[in-house]
Protein backbone atom coordinates (compact mmCIF):
# COMPACT_ATOMS: atom_id res chain seq x y z
CA UNK A 1 0.00 0.00 0.00
CA UNK A 2 0.94 3.53 -0.66
CA UNK A 3 1.22 4.28 3.02
CA UNK A 4 3.64 1.39 3.63
CA UNK A 5 5.61 2.30 0.60
CA UNK A 6 5.85 5.84 1.91
CA UNK A 7 7.15 4.55 5.23
CA UNK A 8 9.67 2.26 3.51
CA UNK A 9 10.89 5.13 1.40
CA UNK A 10 11.19 7.21 4.49
CA UNK A 11 13.21 4.51 6.24
CA UNK A 12 15.38 4.11 3.17
CA UNK A 13 16.14 7.82 3.00
CA UNK A 14 16.57 8.11 6.75
CA UNK A 15 19.16 5.33 6.80
CA UNK A 16 20.94 6.83 3.79
CA UNK A 17 20.97 10.17 5.53
CA UNK A 18 22.35 8.64 8.71
CA UNK A 19 25.07 7.00 6.67
CA UNK A 20 25.95 10.28 5.01
CA UNK A 21 25.85 12.11 8.34
CA UNK A 22 28.07 9.44 9.92
CA UNK A 23 30.58 9.72 7.11
CA UNK A 24 30.54 13.48 7.37
CA UNK A 25 31.06 13.35 11.12
CA UNK A 26 33.94 10.90 10.70
CA UNK A 27 35.52 13.28 8.22
CA UNK A 28 34.98 16.27 10.48
CA UNK A 29 36.69 14.46 13.36
CA UNK A 30 39.56 13.40 11.12
CA UNK A 31 39.94 16.98 9.91
CA UNK A 32 39.97 18.29 13.47
CA UNK A 33 42.67 15.79 14.40
CA UNK A 34 44.64 16.56 11.26
CA UNK A 35 44.68 20.27 12.11
CA UNK A 36 45.75 19.54 15.65
CA UNK A 37 48.59 17.32 14.39
CA UNK A 38 50.33 20.03 12.35
CA UNK A 39 53.90 20.68 13.50
CA UNK A 40 56.65 22.71 11.83
CA UNK A 41 58.15 19.43 10.58
CA UNK A 42 55.05 17.58 9.54
CA UNK A 43 51.59 18.28 8.18
CA UNK A 44 48.89 16.04 6.70
CA UNK A 45 48.09 19.03 4.50
CA UNK A 46 50.15 20.26 1.61
CA UNK A 47 49.89 22.72 -1.24
CA UNK A 48 49.98 22.08 -4.94
CA UNK A 49 50.63 24.87 -7.42
CA UNK A 50 49.16 25.37 -10.88
CA UNK A 51 50.70 27.80 -13.38
CA UNK A 52 48.84 30.71 -14.97
CA UNK A 53 50.03 31.69 -18.43
CA UNK A 54 49.93 35.22 -19.78
CA UNK A 55 48.54 35.08 -23.34
CA UNK A 56 50.41 38.17 -24.58
CA UNK A 57 53.95 36.91 -23.97
CA UNK A 58 53.37 33.23 -23.27
CA UNK A 59 55.07 33.42 -19.88
CA UNK A 60 54.01 32.03 -16.53
CA UNK A 61 52.79 35.06 -14.58
CA UNK A 62 51.46 33.35 -11.52
CA UNK A 63 50.56 30.22 -9.65
CA UNK A 64 47.41 29.16 -7.84
CA UNK A 65 47.97 27.44 -4.51
CA UNK A 66 45.57 24.54 -3.96
CA UNK A 67 45.25 22.68 -0.67
CA UNK A 68 45.65 18.91 -0.42
CA UNK A 69 44.85 16.64 2.51
CA UNK A 70 46.08 13.11 2.96
CA UNK A 71 44.48 11.25 5.87
CA UNK A 72 45.95 7.90 7.01
CA UNK A 73 42.47 6.29 7.11
CA UNK A 74 40.45 8.26 4.56
CA UNK A 75 43.29 8.60 2.06
CA UNK A 76 43.43 11.61 -0.26
CA UNK A 77 40.35 13.74 0.38
CA UNK A 78 39.30 16.10 -2.45
CA UNK A 79 39.52 19.80 -1.48
CA UNK A 80 35.95 20.53 -2.56
CA UNK A 81 34.93 18.08 0.14
CA UNK A 82 37.17 19.02 3.05
CA UNK A 83 36.89 22.75 2.46
CA UNK A 84 33.11 22.48 2.71
CA UNK A 85 33.39 20.45 5.91
CA UNK A 86 35.89 22.92 7.36
CA UNK A 87 33.49 25.73 6.49
CA UNK A 88 30.53 24.01 8.15
CA UNK A 89 32.34 23.00 11.32
CA UNK A 90 34.27 26.13 12.25
CA UNK A 91 37.60 24.67 11.14
CA UNK A 92 38.13 26.92 8.15
CA UNK A 93 39.94 29.60 10.06
CA UNK A 94 42.83 27.42 11.29
CA UNK A 95 43.01 25.67 7.93
CA UNK A 96 42.92 28.99 6.06
CA UNK A 97 45.64 30.41 8.32
CA UNK A 98 47.80 27.38 7.59
CA UNK A 99 47.27 27.90 3.83
CA UNK A 100 48.47 31.51 4.14
CA UNK A 101 51.57 30.61 6.12
CA UNK A 102 52.42 27.73 3.83
CA UNK A 103 51.85 29.78 0.67
CA UNK A 104 54.12 32.59 1.86
CA UNK A 105 56.77 30.12 2.96
CA UNK A 106 56.70 28.74 -0.59
CA UNK A 107 56.82 32.14 -2.27
CA UNK A 108 60.03 32.74 -0.32
CA UNK A 109 61.29 29.31 -1.38
CA UNK A 110 60.50 29.96 -5.06
CA UNK A 111 62.43 33.21 -4.84
CA UNK A 112 65.38 31.46 -3.27
CA UNK A 113 65.25 28.92 -6.09
CA UNK A 114 65.82 31.85 -8.48
CA UNK A 115 62.25 32.19 -9.71
CA UNK A 116 61.03 35.76 -9.78
CA UNK A 117 58.01 37.69 -10.97
CA UNK A 118 55.55 35.06 -9.85
CA UNK A 119 52.43 36.01 -7.96
CA UNK A 120 50.77 33.27 -5.98
CA UNK A 121 46.98 33.16 -5.66
CA UNK A 122 45.32 31.86 -2.51
CA UNK A 123 41.67 30.82 -2.33
CA UNK A 124 39.77 32.29 0.57
CA UNK A 125 36.39 31.09 1.72
CA UNK A 126 33.31 32.73 3.14
CA UNK A 127 34.17 31.95 6.79
CA UNK A 128 37.59 33.54 6.43
CA UNK A 129 36.09 36.70 4.99
CA UNK A 130 33.92 36.97 8.06
CA UNK A 131 36.96 37.70 10.17
CA UNK A 132 37.80 41.34 10.35
CA UNK A 133 41.32 40.44 11.46
CA UNK A 134 42.10 38.67 8.15
CA UNK A 135 43.93 41.62 6.56
CA UNK A 136 46.08 41.90 9.68
CA UNK A 137 46.98 38.22 9.53
CA UNK A 138 47.92 38.55 5.85
CA UNK A 139 50.04 41.61 6.55
CA UNK A 140 51.79 39.77 9.37
CA UNK A 141 52.51 36.64 7.36
CA UNK A 142 53.86 38.66 4.42
CA UNK A 143 56.13 40.62 6.76
CA UNK A 144 57.32 37.45 8.43
CA UNK A 145 58.62 36.11 5.10
CA UNK A 146 59.82 39.52 3.93
CA UNK A 147 57.33 39.59 1.06
CA UNK A 148 55.25 42.40 -0.43
CA UNK A 149 51.49 42.47 -1.08
CA UNK A 150 52.34 42.34 -4.81
CA UNK A 151 53.55 38.76 -4.31
CA UNK A 152 50.08 37.63 -3.35
CA UNK A 153 46.69 37.36 -5.02
CA UNK A 154 43.44 36.43 -3.33
CA UNK A 155 40.60 34.52 -4.97
CA UNK A 156 37.05 34.58 -3.69
CA UNK A 157 34.23 32.80 -5.44
CA UNK A 158 31.38 34.75 -6.88
CA UNK A 159 28.96 33.25 -4.35
CA UNK A 160 31.24 34.09 -1.41
CA UNK A 161 31.45 37.67 -2.66
CA UNK A 162 27.65 37.88 -2.51
CA UNK A 163 27.43 36.91 1.16
CA UNK A 164 27.73 39.61 3.79
CA UNK A 165 28.11 42.44 1.25
CA UNK A 166 29.10 45.14 3.74
CA UNK A 167 31.80 43.20 5.54
CA UNK A 168 33.07 41.68 2.28
CA UNK A 169 33.41 45.12 0.73
CA UNK A 170 35.19 46.51 3.81
CA UNK A 171 37.72 43.65 3.92
CA UNK A 172 38.32 43.58 0.18
CA UNK A 173 38.92 47.34 0.23
CA UNK A 174 41.63 46.84 2.84
CA UNK A 175 43.33 44.18 0.72
CA UNK A 176 43.08 46.27 -2.39
CA UNK A 177 44.47 49.33 -0.58
CA UNK A 178 47.41 47.20 0.54
CA UNK A 179 48.10 46.44 -3.14
CA UNK A 180 46.92 42.85 -3.25
CA UNK A 181 45.37 41.67 -6.51
CA UNK A 182 41.84 40.31 -6.06
CA UNK A 183 40.12 37.80 -8.31
CA UNK A 184 36.55 36.55 -8.50
CA UNK A 185 36.74 32.76 -8.84
CA UNK A 186 34.28 30.46 -10.64
CA UNK A 187 32.76 33.49 -12.33
CA UNK A 188 29.44 32.82 -14.02
CA UNK A 189 28.26 30.09 -11.64
CA UNK A 190 26.91 32.38 -8.93
CA UNK A 191 24.14 34.88 -9.19
CA UNK A 192 25.97 38.07 -8.53
CA UNK A 193 24.41 41.30 -9.56
CA UNK A 194 26.71 43.25 -11.79
CA UNK A 195 25.66 46.40 -10.00
CA UNK A 196 27.16 44.95 -6.81
CA UNK A 197 30.30 43.49 -8.42
CA UNK A 198 31.00 46.89 -9.92
CA UNK A 199 31.54 48.27 -6.41
CA UNK A 200 34.04 45.58 -5.38
CA UNK A 201 37.71 46.54 -5.73
CA UNK A 202 38.50 43.51 -7.89
CA UNK A 203 41.07 43.18 -10.67
CA UNK A 204 40.34 39.85 -12.31
CA UNK A 205 37.50 37.55 -13.25
CA UNK A 206 38.18 33.82 -13.46
CA UNK A 207 35.81 32.35 -16.01
CA UNK A 208 34.50 29.08 -14.56
CA UNK A 209 35.74 25.92 -16.20
CA UNK A 210 32.19 24.63 -16.78
CA UNK A 211 31.90 27.17 -19.62
CA UNK A 212 35.30 26.33 -21.03
CA UNK A 213 34.72 22.55 -21.12
CA UNK A 214 32.50 22.45 -24.22
CA UNK A 215 33.41 25.81 -25.65
CA UNK A 216 34.16 24.44 -29.11
CA UNK A 217 30.92 22.45 -29.44
CA UNK A 218 28.35 24.32 -27.36
CA UNK A 219 27.36 27.62 -28.94
CA UNK A 220 25.77 28.81 -25.68
CA UNK A 221 28.97 28.26 -23.71
CA UNK A 222 30.96 30.02 -26.39
CA UNK A 223 28.53 32.95 -26.24
CA UNK A 224 28.78 33.10 -22.43
CA UNK A 225 32.58 33.12 -22.59
CA UNK A 226 32.64 35.76 -25.27
CA UNK A 227 30.14 37.99 -23.43
CA UNK A 228 32.00 37.56 -20.12
CA UNK A 229 35.32 38.55 -21.65
CA UNK A 230 33.73 41.64 -23.22
CA UNK A 231 31.95 42.54 -20.00
CA UNK A 232 35.07 42.08 -17.88
CA UNK A 233 37.20 44.13 -20.23
CA UNK A 234 34.60 46.90 -20.29
CA UNK A 235 34.78 47.00 -16.50
CA UNK A 236 38.56 47.24 -16.74
CA UNK A 237 39.16 43.73 -15.44
CA UNK A 238 41.59 41.06 -16.51
CA UNK A 239 40.08 37.79 -17.72
CA UNK A 240 41.48 34.45 -16.61
CA UNK A 241 40.12 31.22 -18.13
CA UNK A 242 40.10 28.15 -15.86
CA UNK A 243 40.14 24.52 -16.94
CA UNK A 244 41.93 24.91 -20.28
CA UNK A 245 42.60 21.30 -21.26
CA UNK A 246 43.06 21.29 -25.02
CA UNK A 247 44.89 23.26 -27.67
CA UNK A 248 41.56 24.04 -29.33
CA UNK A 249 40.26 25.57 -26.10
CA UNK A 250 43.49 27.52 -25.73
CA UNK A 251 43.14 28.88 -29.25
CA UNK A 252 39.46 29.66 -28.82
CA UNK A 253 39.96 31.54 -25.54
CA UNK A 254 42.94 33.40 -26.95
CA UNK A 255 40.81 34.52 -29.88
CA UNK A 256 38.10 35.72 -27.47
CA UNK A 257 40.69 37.93 -25.83
CA UNK A 258 41.31 36.12 -22.52
CA UNK A 259 44.38 37.57 -20.83
CA UNK A 260 45.50 34.59 -18.77
CA UNK A 261 45.01 30.84 -19.16
CA UNK A 262 45.13 28.11 -16.53
CA UNK A 263 44.46 24.40 -16.91
CA UNK A 264 45.70 20.86 -17.49
CA UNK A 265 46.78 21.85 -21.02
CA UNK A 266 49.72 23.61 -19.37
CA UNK A 267 49.97 21.64 -16.16
CA UNK A 268 48.04 19.99 -13.39
CA UNK A 269 48.55 21.47 -9.94
CA UNK A 270 51.97 20.15 -8.83
CA UNK A 271 53.85 19.84 -5.55
CA UNK A 272 56.40 22.63 -4.95
CA UNK A 273 59.48 20.65 -6.07
CA UNK A 274 57.81 19.69 -9.33
CA UNK A 275 56.50 23.16 -10.07
CA UNK A 276 60.02 24.54 -9.60
CA UNK A 277 61.27 22.02 -12.19
CA UNK A 278 58.35 22.86 -14.49
CA UNK A 279 59.11 26.58 -14.29
CA UNK A 280 62.83 26.04 -14.90
CA UNK A 281 62.12 24.19 -18.13
CA UNK A 282 59.13 26.21 -19.30
CA UNK A 283 59.44 27.67 -22.79
CA UNK A 284 57.19 30.69 -23.42
CA UNK A 285 54.88 30.14 -26.37
CA UNK A 286 53.55 33.23 -28.11
CA UNK A 287 50.29 33.06 -30.08
P1 LIG B 1 39.18 26.46 -7.69
O1 LIG B 1 39.75 27.51 -6.80
O2 LIG B 1 38.25 26.90 -8.75
O3 LIG B 1 40.46 25.71 -8.29
C1 LIG B 1 40.52 25.16 -9.56
C2 LIG B 1 40.23 23.69 -9.55
O4 LIG B 1 40.16 23.22 -10.87
C3 LIG B 1 41.31 22.86 -8.87
O5 LIG B 1 40.68 21.74 -8.26
C4 LIG B 1 42.15 22.41 -10.06
O6 LIG B 1 42.87 21.22 -9.82
C5 LIG B 1 41.08 22.19 -11.08
N1 LIG B 1 41.58 22.31 -12.45
C6 LIG B 1 42.55 23.15 -12.90
N2 LIG B 1 42.73 23.01 -14.22
C7 LIG B 1 41.85 22.07 -14.63
C8 LIG B 1 41.55 21.47 -15.91
O7 LIG B 1 42.14 21.80 -16.95
N3 LIG B 1 40.59 20.52 -15.93
C9 LIG B 1 39.93 20.14 -14.80
N4 LIG B 1 38.99 19.19 -14.92
N5 LIG B 1 40.18 20.68 -13.59
C10 LIG B 1 41.13 21.63 -13.51
P2 LIG B 1 41.04 21.27 -6.80
O8 LIG B 1 42.48 21.46 -6.51
O9 LIG B 1 40.43 19.91 -6.64
O10 LIG B 1 40.26 22.30 -5.89
C11 LIG B 1 38.86 22.37 -5.93
C12 LIG B 1 38.35 23.57 -5.19
O11 LIG B 1 38.63 23.48 -3.79
C13 LIG B 1 39.00 24.88 -5.63
O12 LIG B 1 38.42 25.34 -6.82
C14 LIG B 1 38.69 25.75 -4.44
O13 LIG B 1 37.37 26.24 -4.51
C15 LIG B 1 38.79 24.77 -3.28
N6 LIG B 1 40.11 24.91 -2.65
C16 LIG B 1 41.28 24.27 -2.91
N7 LIG B 1 42.25 24.69 -2.08
C17 LIG B 1 41.70 25.65 -1.29
C18 LIG B 1 42.20 26.48 -0.22
O14 LIG B 1 43.39 26.46 0.14
N8 LIG B 1 41.30 27.32 0.38
C19 LIG B 1 39.99 27.40 -0.03
N9 LIG B 1 39.17 28.25 0.60
N10 LIG B 1 39.50 26.65 -1.02
C20 LIG B 1 40.34 25.79 -1.65
MG1 LIG C 1 40.59 29.24 -7.22
MG1 LIG D 1 37.68 28.22 -9.92
MG1 LIG E 1 35.84 25.66 -7.95
TrEMBL record:
It comes from the Bacteria. Residues 24-283 form the EAL domain. This is EAL domain-containing protein. The lineage of its organism: Bacteria, Pseudomonadati, Pseudomonadota, Betaproteobacteria, Rhodocyclales. The chain holds residues 293 to 579 of 579 of the full protein.
Amino acid sequence: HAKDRGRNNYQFYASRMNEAAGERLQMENALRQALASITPEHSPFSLHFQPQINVADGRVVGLEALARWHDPVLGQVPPDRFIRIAEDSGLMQPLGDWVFWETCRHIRRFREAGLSGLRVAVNISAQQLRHEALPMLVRGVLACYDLTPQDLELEITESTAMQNPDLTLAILNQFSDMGIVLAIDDFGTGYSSLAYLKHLPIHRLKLDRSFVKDIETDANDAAICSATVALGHNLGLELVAEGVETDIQREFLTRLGCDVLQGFFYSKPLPADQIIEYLRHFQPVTP
